[in-house]
Structure formats: C-alpha cells, structure tokens
Specification:
The structure is a homodimer of 222-residue chains. By secondary structure, chain A is an alpha+beta fold. The longest helix of chain A is centred in the middle third of the chain and has 31 residues, at 92-122. A four-stranded mixed β-sheet of chain A has the order 2-1-3-4, covered by helices on one side. The first copy, chain A, has nine helices and four strands. Helices cover 55% and strands 9% of the residues of chain A. Chain A is elongated and about 75 Å long. In chain A, helix 1 packs parallel to helix 2 (69-79), helix 3 (92-122) crosses helix 4 (125-139) and helix 3 (92-122) packs parallel to helix 8 (181-196). At the A-B interface, helix 1, helix 2, helix 3, helix 4 and helix 7 of A face helix 1, helix 2, helix 3, helix 4 and helix 7 of B. Chains A, B: This is Glutathione S-transferase. Chains A, B: One of its GO terms (molecular function) is maleylacetoacetate isomerase activity.
Chain lengths: 222, 222
C-alpha cells in the first residue's frame, strides 16, 4: 500500500518547513508507518484539489485521503491501534509539568501587574509594609506604578489566557472529564486573581468562570 | 489525626488568596482528606518557623510537616495512594489539547513576526507573490515591516518559549521519557522556525536544540 504526504516546500524542494506537516511526519514515524513525501507549493492548489482542501498536510493512505494535521493524528491513532499510541499513557504526569511551567512563567507573571496593588489593599497594616517593601525589591516598580498601568496589564493577561480558554472551550477540564492537579495549578492562579481583584477579570458566565465553578463543585466547595 | 494547612490571609481573615495554597486545598479535596486551615499573614514568620519555611502553604499532616505546594502534592500522592490520583490516568490526551492550544495561540503567533520575511525568501516566485498577498491580508502588515522589527520579535519569542524550556530542563520530553504527539506539535513549530530562520534562534546545544535532536533520534530521523 502506498502512503504519500503532501509536504509544503520552498523553491528548493529539499526545504520543508510547515509545522503542521512536521507534526504529521513525526506522527507517522511514531506509528512506524513508512511514507513518501511529495513536495507542494502554496499555489499548487490543483495538485491537492482531490482532497477537498487547499492546504497541506494531505495524507493519502492507500485509498484513504485525510487532511488537517490533527485529523490525521486522530486517524492514525484509530487506524493503527496496535502501533505506539500518539496520545497515550503514561505521560499525564510529565504533561502536568508543562501546565505548571506555563502557569508560573506566563500566567503568574501576567497576573502580578494586575493584582499587586489590589493585594496590598487587602492586607493587615504589618503585612502592607512588608508587602510594599518586598515587592519593590522583586519587581523594581512601586505599587502605584503597577496600579497606573493596570489596564494595559489586563490586556496582556487576556492574551496570556488564550491557550487556557481555547482548551476549556473544547473539554470540561484540563485533565478531561474530571479535574486533576493540572486543573488545580491553574485554578489556584485564577482563584488568586478573582479573590483579590478590584475589578471583574473574567467574563461573567464565560468559559473560565464556568470552569472555576465546576472545579469547586467537583469537590463540594462551591 | 489532625490535618492543618497554613493559608495566606488578608486583614479580613476570610480572604484567602494564595494561588499555591489553593492548589493544596484542591489537592486535599481531590484526595478526599479532611483538613482545617489556619489563617496566616506574610509577616507571621514565627508561626511557621517549625516548618523550616518562611512561606505558605505549610501542611501539618499528623506528625508530618510538609511545605511547598508541589512537594505537598507529591507527598499526598505517595502517602494516600488509594485515593484518587492527582496526576493520573487518563488525562494525557486532554492535556495534549492544552499543549496544542498553547502552540497555536502563543508559540506560532510569536514565531510569525520572526519568520515571515525569511519564509518569503525561500519560496518559488509564484508562491512569493501569493505569500506576500495573503500574509498582508492576514496580518495587515507588510513583510518589510515584520523584517524591520525582527529583533523585538525575537525577544518576545524567547519570553513565549519560557514554559517549554522550563519543562525540558526537568524531563527529556514533554511526554516524559519518550516523545508523543505533544512533543510532535511543539517540535513542528520549532522545526519550522529553525528551517526557515535567517539567524540562529535556539541556543546552540541548549535545552531546546538538544530536545529537537532527541525527538529526531527517537524516530531515526536525525
């Protein structure tokens, strides 16, 4: 059976640079499936018209034509179940490491400029003095400066939260049908935010607010 | 047995806002373990001196004192193995959704401004005209404008890659000891970048370059 992948190429056809085609090439390799590639250029729409698509990757697997890298991955996982799983066990725990790293290197730093002055307002007088001094030490900016730029910080925060929103539009929890520690890590960040923020940060009844409530409901904490 | 969590509080002690304490509270709930909280203020270092820590969360679980939210999660997973797993099956696949969302909403958008003019240079003349026109349509910026701001775009890219670097400093692959589709998705993005970039984007022999080589070696593609 022949297996051919249409693969985006430069003028020099040895240059193959599409990130989506690369996903598919690795998925085929992971499944130990032999394949050939056909170099394809952006304007060669006619060459892949048979697929009903105007973009690559397009995989021709014997009689079957499949396009879109994620659809191809799902197709390979289903069609070749005896080969190594593309999504499978036991990587839940290592993938949680990425959620943690994202939370701590992106989400928390995006929240800090939004929340810092608000947190200060909530503290005991002793803690206020401590907080002002230590945060000035960490961030080299005053609380007043953070407060003055809060609107811009909220814009950046909304950008930072995109992968989270996108994921939770597709599935109820980061961990799937029920929350686990990956959800807990991110929930902590947003609970921090919504607890201390002087303004509404999450769209009321939007995907993030509904997810937070669902986490709490799971544990009888709502 | 008593189980007490020291929990960061505002002047109003009902306000509990630490993202790390929230992680721990949810982890305890996930494990169905009863606990009480003790409100704690930033400056009350003396109250938790027994833990050897100056920060919360600090969990006192009977005779055992554990601090740092991630250490606590590992402790709970090990100590209470018969309760629901904090990291466990089957969420590998749903967690991959987040990796995909991050790649497409953060990493790809961070790469586009760096790569666009470089990609153009690699294309056939027909594709160059197509590419210039369609990208101007998508991004409302010319290739020349992208090229002129490439240095700033690289700075932003390095910020965007932080969670990736941080994860791969801790483990060989996103999926753990061997790559899976989560690795493939992100690899695709960086392979795209390194294939087309006119300058070196990844630190030579740095964690990202070594990870990319290891992915290829896994599949005999190096």
């Amino acid at each position: 059976m022949s297996r051919v992948l249409y693969d985006l190429a430069g003028a020099d056809e040895s240059i193959r640079f599409s990130p989506f085609c690369w996903r598919t090439k690795l998925a085929l390799a992971h499944k130990n499936l032999a394949f050939e590639t056909t170099p394809w250029h952006f304007t060669e729409k006619d060459k892949i018209a048979f697929s009903g698509q105007s973009k690559v990757p397009v995989l021709v697997d014997g009689e079957k034509v499949v396009s879109d890298s994620h659809t191809i991955a799902e197709y390979l996982e289903t069609t070749y179940p005896n080969e190594a799983s593309l999504f499978g066990e036991p990587p839940a725990r290592p993938l949680t490491t990425f959620i943690k790293a994202w939370t701590e290197t992106v989400l928390h730093p995006a929240l800090v400029p939004v929340l810092l002055a608000d947190i200060h307002a909530l503290l005991t007088p002793e803690d206020q003095a401590y907080f002002r001094q230590t945060r000035k030490g960490y961030y080299k900016r005053s609380l007043e400066d953070f407060a003055a730029h809060r609107a811009e910080a909220i814009t950046l925060l909304n950008t930072a939260m995109k992968p989270l929103k996108s994921t939770l539009e597709k599935q109820p929890f980061l961990a799937g049908l029920a929350p686990n520690y990956a959800d807990h890590i991110v929930f902590g960040a947003l609970k921090w935010a919504t607890t201390v923020s002087s303004t509404t940060l999450l769209e009321p009844n939007g995907v993030l607010e509904r997810w937070m409530n669902a986490v709490l409901e799971t544990y009888g904490l709502a």
